[in-house]
Specification:
Elements (H helix, E strand, L loop, with lengths): L1 H37 L2 H13 L3 E9 L6 E9 L3 E7 L2 E7 L3 E6 L1 H7 L4 H7 L3 E5 L3 H9 L3 H4 L9 E7 L2 E10 L8 E8 L6 E8 L4 E7 L15 E3 H5 L1
Parallel strand pairs: 6-12
Antiparallel strand pairs: 1-2, 1-11, 2-3, 3-4, 4-5, 5-6, 7-8, 8-9, 9-10, 10-11
Length: 247
């Protein structure tokens, strides 16, 4: 009888252990499902915007390919809280943008100043190899600054309405993928967007893919989050105020 009792006790312990593990697995699964249900496009977008706002800077690379030509536009930038830099190229046209808390500067070759920045050939000739400058407080300065500072990254995130959320796991890491479509207007084609965000403690943008209805594709990648962005200020003698070029 003693041997049977011992055996019976062991069997009961195994059964109880198995039952306990089943309960734990069930609770864990339920918790995971509840967490997944709580993670929505809205919550991911909100968390990403908050995470971006807390960053000192980020390295951004944008590559745009037009389906109707072999031209490739590339923008390499380092954007910070109060300023940043951009190097823009399209075929042989090049343009450099520097922004500080006091001034915005633009310099480039002749085709860069005309085809990328929009100056007339005559005004581009006046600029030559100098930097065009805008003082803080002007509308032009505000526009240039808005493209070269951290808030410009948060502005890329979509509205929650109409945005679909999915989850991907790559090399053991979780990523959230936001997908949405921007409707066509009288002047712009429809655009399909896919935005990947890290699922780590800091939910920061990783990459974005956009394709419009004409076949143009744009890829944007984000790296070096938290970097301190240093801007080299042009010398006074190498700059010319925009008002003196167009005035």
């Amino acid at each position: 009888m003693m041997g049977r009792s011992v055996l019976w006790t062991r069997i009961r312990l195994v059964q109880l252990f198995a039952s306990a593990m089943a309960v734990i697995v069930t609770l864990f699964t339920f918790g995971a499902v509840a967490y997944a249900m709580a993670t929505t496009a809205s919550s991911v977008i909100k968390a990403a915007k908050k995470a971006v706002a807390g960053q000192a800077g980020v390295h951004v690379v944008l590559v745009a390919k037009n389906s109707s030509s072999s031209d490739i536009e590339k923008i390499v930038g380092d954007v910070g809280r109060t300023g940043g830099t951009e190097e823009i190229s399209e075929d042989k046209a090049t343009l450099t943008v520097e922004v500080t808390s006091s001034y915005a500067y633009v310099s480039g070759n002749s085709s860069g100043l005309t085809t990328i920045f929009g100056l007339s050939s005559a005004d581009a000739k006046k600029v030559g190899r100098r930097w065009v400058s805008w003082k803080a407080g002007s509308s032009q300065y505000s526009q240039i600054k808005s493209d070269t500072t951290v808030p410009s990254v948060a502005a890329l995130l979509p509205d929650a309405k109409g945005t679909k959320l999915s989850t991907e796991i790559t090399n053991g890491s979780t990523f959230y993928v936001l997908k949405w479509t921007t409707a066509a207007t009288s002047s712009t084609p429809a655009v399909s967007n896919s935005f990947t965000i890290s699922g780590g403690a800091a939910m920061l943008p990783v990459k974005e893919f956009a394709t419009d209805s004409t076949g143009t594709k744009v890829t944007t990648s984000f790296s070096s989050w938290g970097e301190q962005v240093a801007v080299t200020v042009p010398t006074l003698t190498s700059t010319v105020a925009y008002s003196k070029i167009t005035g």
